[in-house]
Automatic annotation (TrEMBL):
Tree of life domain: Eukaryota
Listed PROSITE patterns: FIBRINOGEN_C_2
Organism of provenance: Stichopus japonicus
UniProt domain Fibrinogen C-terminal: residue ranges: 1-94, 175-283
Entries under InterPro entries matching the protein: Fibrinogen-like_C, Fibrinogen_a/b/g_C_1, Fibrinogen_a/b/g_C_dom, Fibrinogen_C-term_domain
Gene Ontology CC, one term: extracellular space
One Pfam family here: Fibrinogen_C
Protein name stated in the entry: Fibrinogen C-terminal domain-containing protein
Length: 283
């Protein structure tokens, strides 16, 4: 009967040895064979090119659950090829009883500070046992952990930069942003909503089309509308400067035009939102 020997190439038990090392240190090896260590890429390359070797990993979780996995043929190349992993072969092992699989976008961490799309602020709490948490840059949307930019529309707050959610996601809701000025009332005094050509004082370009609305008694000039996701608002500087879209659909009027308009006098800004459930909000 042939006796099998296991040559240990790495051991990590308590993080007493730092494994965040340079290329040369991983090439030569580091640590202590009786405790935590890495044998070294050069030595492992020399050994695994002598004959066929099997790789085995023994793992014990923080909760004390132990398991191992094996790969049938393990070999790495030499220094000339930068110790490339050449072969691992067939995998065997069972990890399900010990491994907790986190939901999409979540990671294991001892500390938790989960904001939500409804309330991006959070208070950090830590425990001795890692749990699946929504990481930095992500927020909870119901039971899902989603990127912050997928949450909704935010107003930035200078105090903490977190923002306050104003509406549901724009794919299913809508928003309209307008300026209030007395001249707009004169433009659309004949009808509650109208499209007109406008050329502000000092504007050297051609007259541009605007949508004006006095349906509530005010004089609103609409400079942005997003009813759905049919028009991308992920644009470059020049496009936001010139404007894009059409006044009778989704659009941005343009920074140059807004600068010319708001330099004429005092304006009031109004933002109208409609959530995916049909609830209307304005500010």
């Amino acid at each position: 009967m042939t006796q099998l020997y296991i040559l240990v190439i790495q051991r990590r038990e308590d993080n007493s040895i730092n494994f965040n090392r340079t290329w040369d240190e991983y090439e030569n090896g580091f640590g202590f064979l009786s405790h935590e260590f890495w044998l070294g890429n050069e030595k492992i390359s020399y050994i695994t090119n002598q004959r066929k070797y099997q790789l085995r990993m023994d793992i014990t979780t923080e909760s004390g659950c132990s398991f191992f996995v094996t790969y049938e043929t393990f070999r790495i190349s030499d220094s000339f090829s930068h110790y490339k992993l050449v072969s691992t072969g067939e995998y065997t092992g069972t990890t399900d009883p010990c491994i907790e699989w986190c939901p999409t976008n979540k990671v294991l961490n001892r500390c938790k500070c989960e904001g939500s799309c409804a309330d991006p602020t959070c208070t950090e709490s830590c425990s001795s046992t890692p749990t699946c948490v929504c990481p930095d840059g992500f927020l909870m949307d119901g039971e899902d952990c989603v990127p912050r930019e997928n949450c909704s529309c935010f107003i930035e707050e200078a105090e903490n930069g977190q923002g306050v959610v104003l509406a549901d996601t724009l794919e299913t809701g809508s928003n309209v942003i307008g300026l209030l000025h007395q001249t707009v009332k004169h433009i659309v005094q004949r009808t509650p909503t109208a499209f007109d050509l406008l050329q502000p004082a000092g504007w050297t370009g051609n007259p541009f089309q605007v949508m004006c609305d006095v349906s509530d008694g005010g004089g609103w000039l609409v400079f942005q509308r997003r009813d759905d996701s049919s028009l991308s608002f992920h644009r470059d500087w020049n496009e936001y400067r010139e404007g894009f879209g059409t006044a009778d659909g989704n659009f941005w009027l343009g920074n140059d035009k807004l600068a010319a308009l708001t330099s004429q006098g005092q304006y009031e800004l109004r933002i109208d939102f409609v959530s995916k459930s049909g609830q209307q909000t304005l500010c």
